[in-house]
Amino acid sequence: MHCPGLHVSRELQRLTLRSVLCWSLSFYPQPLLNYKRRSTLGLTVDFPMLNVLGFLCYTISTASFLYSPTIRRQYAVRHPLEPVPTVRFNDFAFALHALILCIIIYSQFWHRLWSFEELKGKRASRIVQGIYWGSVAGLVVIALIVLARGGDGSTPEQWAAIDVIYAFSYVKLIVTVVKYIPQAWHNYKVKSTIGWSIHGMLLDFTGSILSIAQLLIDSALESDWSGVTGNPVKFGLGNVSLMFDVIFITQHYVLYRERADKTEDESIDGERRPLIDQA
């Protein structure tokens, strides 16, 4: 006997798995490209630096919504119509996996670890450093407020531990909005996407589409859209990522297509050759 509900559930699971797979794979092209070129030239240090902070916060957030009885109880108090968080294990697995890959990418800027081409002056901009440490300070302030004024979360008006977890979530959202800007600006200044892996962006674009679809379908099946408002990080993350993915795809395939068509090795040689000739 055909069961429409079971069929929809299976399709939703497949959609979820595909989005997680695309997003997870999107973190591999950049470190592999860096390793192949033995250089991080073309990649801004701001991007992986912010990514480490963002996915650390996202990992803590998803782990708390999944495994903390206190956080899950407080969530139910604040969302009585949809008392179970829409965070799934695949969200936590993705966040942890992404954190590890982001740490690897960030470590590739350390010449002593990877023996890549040493690029002097490669450090995060002051604005990015300000956002980074400002976010950390914000988390500390929220935690102190909860410690000083927090209750057990039995009423929605109380400061509670869940507010700290939400703070982690919003830091992730802020980081996602900011982290792409330095790279997009760098590509614009040099009129090239060489050193920036477009394959990662294509996978990220696909994963964002599938993730948003999964979240909307999941909430629709529960007949309660608080699943979207109660999980703002996942919904906002997909939309912001989509916007910047389109920007990078446009830069690579439209604005700077001629340079993108060159092989990475030829491009690096072309950048170094004038210095060798002068020597």
Please outline what is shown here.
The protein has 279 residues and is mainly alpha-helical.
Describe what this molecule looks like in 3D.
This protein is 76% helix and 0% strand. It is an all-alpha fold and 279 residues long. The chain has 13 helices and no strands. The protein starts with a helix and ends with a helix. The chain has helices spanning 4-25, 29-37, 46-67, 69-78, 89-107, 111-114, 126-149, 161-190, 198-221, 226-229, 232-255, 257-260, 264-278. It has one domain (4-278). It is globular.
Instruction: Tell me the number of structural domains.
Output: 1
Overall pLDDT score: 82
Helices and strands, in N-to-C order?
HHHHHHHHHHHHH
Biggest sheet architecture: none
Q: Name the shape in a single word.
A: globular
Output the structural class: mainly alpha
Terminus-to-terminus distance: 79 Å
Helix content: over 70%
- Rg for CA atoms: 21 Å
Q: What low-confidence regions span 5 or more consecutive residues with pLDDT below 50?
A: 263-279
Q: What is the overall number of helices?
A: 13
Q: Approximately what portion of the residues adopt beta-strand conformation?
A: under 5%
- Count all strands and give the number: 0
Keyphrases for this structure?
about 280 residues, mainly alpha, 13 helices, globular
Note the topology:
Blueprint: H1 4-25, H2 29-37, H3 46-67, H4 69-78, H5 89-107, H6 111-114, H7 126-149, H8 161-190, H9 198-221, H10 226-229, H11 232-255, H12 257-260, H13 264-278
